[in-house]
Amino acid sequence: MTLSHTASVSRFGYALSDETRARILLELRGGPATPSELLDILGVSKQLLSNHLSCLRGCGLVASERHGRHMRYSLAVPELGAALGSLVQLVLEVDPHCCESAGCAENGCTCS
């Protein structure tokens, strides 16, 4: 393990330390999305979404691509989606009741 590995893991942890950024990453597991699609799903302000997308791009976790007049955001590498799925499963293994207090069932979350 080198200092650059540590820095990479820290950037990933920082990206996940904010609920909105974590939600963006989890949403992008389903495929690319435009900012307006993410706004509809997340219910945050345009400015907040823009700031978080910029952070995630800076961390190297999200890529953007222009499609005509619109930007589409996706996970920077496909393996990130699998890693996020494994992380969710690990969280449920460590704390199987975490979703009960978060109200996931009421929101249709299956936590998988």
Describe the structure.
With 112 residues, the protein is mainly alpha-helical. The chain has helices at residues 3-16, 19-28, 35-42, 46-58, 79-94, 98-102, and strands at residues 62-67, 70-75. It has a two-stranded antiparallel ribbon with strand order 1-2. The longest helix has 16 residues, at 79-94. The radius of gyration is 15 Å and the shape is globular. 11% of the residues are buried. The mean pLDDT is 87. GO terms for molecular function: cadmium ion sensor activity; DNA binding; DNA-binding transcription factor activity; lead ion binding. One of its GO terms (biological process) is response to lead ion. Residues 1-95 form the HTH arsR-type domain. This is HTH-type transcriptional regulator CmtR.
Summarize the helices and strands and which ones pair or pack.
Layout: H1 3-16, H2 19-28, H3 35-42, H4 46-58, E1 62-67, E2 70-75, H5 79-94, H6 98-102
Antiparallel strand pairs: 1-2
Question: In CATH terms, what is the fold-level topology of one domain?
Answer: Arc Repressor Mutant, subunit A
CATH homologous superfamily heading of one domain: Winged helix-like DNA-binding domain superfamily/Winged helix DNA-binding domain
Rg, rounded, reads: 15 Å
Secondary structure class reads mainly alpha
Instruction: Write the H/E string, N to C.
Output: HHHHEEHH
Can you summarize the main beta sheet? 2 strands, antiparallel
Q: Helix content range of the residues, please?
A: 55-70%
Strand order of the largest sheet: 1-2
Count the DSSP helices: 6
Question: What fraction strand?
Answer: 5-15%
What integer is the average pLDDT? 87
SS elements, strand count: 2
The name of the CATH architecture of one domain is Orthogonal Bundle
Q: Which spans of ≥5 residues are poorly predicted at pLDDT below 50?
A: none
